[in-house]
């Protein structure tokens, strides 16, 4: 019984530290541990019980954000669900995409997304066809992140349905032209 209570406290402390770090990262990555402690209402001992330093905390935050987002992209990149995850941390993603805060987050996220894409394409033997799909996927992803960046900068003025309609409109010609496109790796409906 004590073990479960300890585990719950550990989980809560880590979540408090992550949340405080996310709030601070949305403004600057140059925050001090002292600022983090004040924001999270935790002691220095609590911080060092969980993390070696600020970089360790930021890496943990990034890994958690990447995990949350890539859960929605297993099998297919489910655009609506990804938008929902992004909107939960909209202030941070806005800072990352529009103000170059925490560039390691996007680097790690894109690496994870590319790994998922590569797993989906592993059975394609025709190298030319596989490369064609990879190029298309990269173009779609660039367009997706550009639109998301603008959406966040505009305080998410469009609803999920409206931004999904924008994505569908952008890629409608490609979607109807052929069935073997990089768009097969995306779900613009659910």
TrEMBL record:
Molecular function terms from GO: DNA binding
Keywords per UniProt: DNA-binding, Membrane, Transmembrane, Transmembrane helix
Keyword Transmembrane helix: yes
Keyword Phosphoprotein attributed: no
Coiled-coil parts of chain: none
Start-end of DNA-binding region: 32-51
Matches recorded under PROSITE patterns: HTH_TETR_2
Residue intervals passing through the bilayer: 133-152
Gene3D superfamilies linked: Tetracycline Repressor, domain 2
Residues covered by the HTH tetR-type domain: 11-69
Entries under InterPro entries matching the protein: Homeodomain-like_sf, HTH-type_Tx_Regulator, HTH_TetR
Stated name of the protein: Transcriptional regulator
């Amino acid at each position: 019984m004590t073990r479960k209570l300890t585990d719950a406290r550990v989980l809560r402390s880590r979540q408090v530290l992550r949340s405080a770090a996310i709030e601070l990262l949305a403004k600057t990555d140059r925050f001090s541990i002292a600022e983090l402690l004040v924001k999270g209402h935790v002691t220095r001992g609590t911080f060092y019980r969980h993390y070696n330093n600020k970089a360790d905390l930021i890496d943990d935050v990034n890994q958690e954000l990447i995990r949350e987002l890539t859960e929605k992209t297993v099998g297919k990149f489910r655009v609506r669900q990804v938008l929902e995850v992004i909107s939960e941390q909209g202030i941070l993603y806005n800072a990352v995409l529009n103000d170059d805060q925490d560039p390691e987050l996007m680097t790690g996220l894109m690496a994870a997304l590319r790994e998922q894409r590569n797993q989906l394409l592993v059975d394609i033997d025709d190298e030319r066809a596989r490369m064609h799909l990879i190029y298309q996927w990269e173009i779609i992803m660039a367009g997706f992140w550009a639109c998301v960046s603008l959406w966040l900068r505009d305080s998410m003025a469009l609803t999920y349905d409206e931004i999904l309609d924008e994505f569908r409109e952008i890629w409608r010609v490609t979607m109807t032209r052929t069935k073997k496109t990089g768009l097969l790796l995306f779900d613009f409906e659910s």
